[in-house]
């Protein structure tokens, strides 16, 4: 890239971008895309980034720590804010708000002190709450859990700062995101089917909107390059929607497996999950079966619309069924044998800050 070349992210000359949570699942994919484009970036995270990532600076620190933010944001011209507390369990309510809302407040202060205006915030479709019918950006948010509520609180901080003329914010609301290098719910489902342990609970007719990480990152960077003044928000979800039964059958086909025709009644499945949860509590382990996950997969409808994103002119590169198969391919070649440790943010703020050039 020559000096003065226009940036992937904005219509300004190339500058350095701060990526909070750049060592996480979506953050890693996003930083790789920045790196491939020649964009300079800094990662702020409690965890070491993937070895193939070469940030200009890696700041090992807590996004709730003002010193860590100051160490990371100096010299940057834009912020991509992905750091979050987001797991289904094992996180206290206050921690969700400390990480998701509190870090956003600190970033706004740090940006204001340095006259940095542009921030892209990765929120969540969880801000809408229950989605028994397709939700779009015109629907009033109504989160039902601390994760969605804390993300919505962060959005409101950004809107307040933008209304005061202090920044320009793009808000991305993906639904459940999956893909290579992800070890969350989709990985657990693939592993259960592969091991022959999967039983479909209920009829599997509930719609489950999904986001594929490559499409999500592509859209976020595409929209960010076109974002102007003020605040705008976009859902991201793959189309067309699939039901939980269709998802399971597609994964089974890609794995060369068959799933049982017999469906397990919901009440029985929840009863069987109860002692497993007890075992997990006693051993301190996080197991792939829980009542919350059963409800999420077999009962809850999570149906969202990305019509606004698609109508803006963006064309996703991978269709949903291919995305599921690509994820299975990664699982078979790599993910199946990779040890994974669940990364939970500490309840108390990590005070130490380390800078790696």
Automatic annotation (TrEMBL):
Gene3D superfamilies: NAD(P)-binding Rossmann-like Domain (3.40.50.720). InterPro entries: Epimerase_deHydtase, Lipid_A_modif_metabolic_enz, NAD(P)-bd_dom_sf. Residues 17-229 form the NAD-dependent epimerase/dehydratase domain. It comes from the Bacteria. Transmembrane segments: none annotated. Coiled coil: none annotated. Pfam families: Epimerase. This is NAD(P)-dependent oxidoreductase. It comes from Gemmatimonas groenlandica. The lineage of its organism: Bacteria, Pseudomonadati, Gemmatimonadota, Gemmatimonadia, Gemmatimonadales.
